[in-house]
Design brief:
Length: 334
């Protein structure tokens, strides 16, 4: 008989690997569109437009549209999701823009900062306290951002804008009690009108790259819906099945793959200032992960002590306490 917990962990691991590897490979897709002359703003508009039918199929197959209509009737929920959709659109645009002029290395640096940005946002918005290890880690991140500016006078705004926009997006989504796929569907609906208007405007100027003359390019552009939704869906499934610590480790797969692709495939280079910035951020990540491991171990030991009072023995176990409970995974937008 198979262990349900082990099966859940395996399925979560597979979903997480799919999500983060997919996100790591996405620069190849956007670079292909950019090479065919499709600008960043148009890619964003098509990405939003073609995400809606994919989300619609998933909503119909999974839960139905009742919850989506419930959210659309709530002014309070709509206002919050309008903010989250704006932040998501900003994040998507910045990431697409990073692939057009060949700044994927800078984007990967930004996504390495993601857990540390979350650690910085939590005390400001959620009144959580920083742990001692977070201070030197955040100081190293600040150094990583400052080094390219001091070296060349260039501010690595992409590396800053990406984690901040996505960190704020996650924070807003945490504040609204809406299921993940429902929230994504509503966000896509809210972003649809300006995206569609922009595509109509491009068509009027004969600058829309989706035309009846090139079905190969049309198919590549329409594929942006699948490119967008599939990793979001598998990420949601993974985060509901895996311990938080496992997700914390896996999230570094994506920027690592991005950086490898940028250097080996897209022709970008690791200049001395970029290398120094990465070293600072990697040291910060190492401090963050080691502190998370130490904290998880402390919680596990504390749980074991609470579960087994001193001097209490168990029949047939010679006083050996049961195994500590597995770390509970958290649900997105819980």
């Amino acid at each position: 008989m198979s262990d349900p917990a082990a099966a859940q962990f395996r399925s979560g691991l597979i979903c997480g690997l799919v999500a983060y590897l997919w996100w790591g490979l996405v620069p190849l897709y956007f670079a292909a569109l950019a090479a065919l002359g499709v600008p960043a703003w148009e890619i964003l508009a098509h990405r939003i437009f073609w995400s809606l039918p994919v989300v619609g199929v998933l909503i119909t197959w999974a839960a139905g549209w009742r919850d989506v209509f419930r959210v659309l009737r709530s002014r309070a929920l709509l206002l919050i999701l309008l903010l989250s959709s704006f932040l998501l659109a900003v994040n998507w645009l910045v990431y697409i823009y990073a692939t057009v002029p060949g700044r994927v290395v800078e984007a990967s640096l930004g996504y390495y900062m993601m857990p540390l940005v979350n650690a910085a946002l939590a005390p400001i918005f959620l009144k959580e306290k920083l742990r001692r290890a977070h201070y030197p880690a955040l100081a190293l991140v600040a150094m990583g951002v400052a080094i390219p500016f001091v070296w060349k006078g260039n501010f690595t705004w992409i590396a800053v804008a990406l984690p901040i926009s996505f960190g704020l997006y996650g924070l807003v989504r945490k504040m609204v009690r809406v299921e993940s796929m429902t929230g994504l569907a509503v966000e896509t609906i809210l972003m649809l009108a300006p995206s569609l208007a922009f595509l109509v405007y491009l068509s009027a100027l004969d600058r829309n790259h989706m035309t009846p003359n090139d079905w190969g390019l049309n198919a590549l552009i329409a594929f942006s819906g699948i490119v967008t939704v599939i990793p979001l869906l598998t990420f949601t499934l993974a985060i509901r099945r895996l311990p938080l610590l496992a997700v914390s480790f896996m999230q570094f797969i994506s920027p690592t793959v991005q950086m490898f692709i940028a250097v080996t495939w897209l022709g970008e280079s690791l200049t001395p200032d970029r290398i120094a910035a990465f070293v600072c951020v990697w040291l910060a990540v190492a401090i963050f992960v080691l502190d998370a491991l130490f904290q998880a171990r402390q919680k596990k030991s504390a749980a074991a002590r609470v579960a087994v009072p001193a001097g209490l023995s168990f029949p047939g176990t010679a006083g050996v306490p049961p195994a500590a409970p597995r770390m509970v995974s958290f649900n997105e937008e819980s």
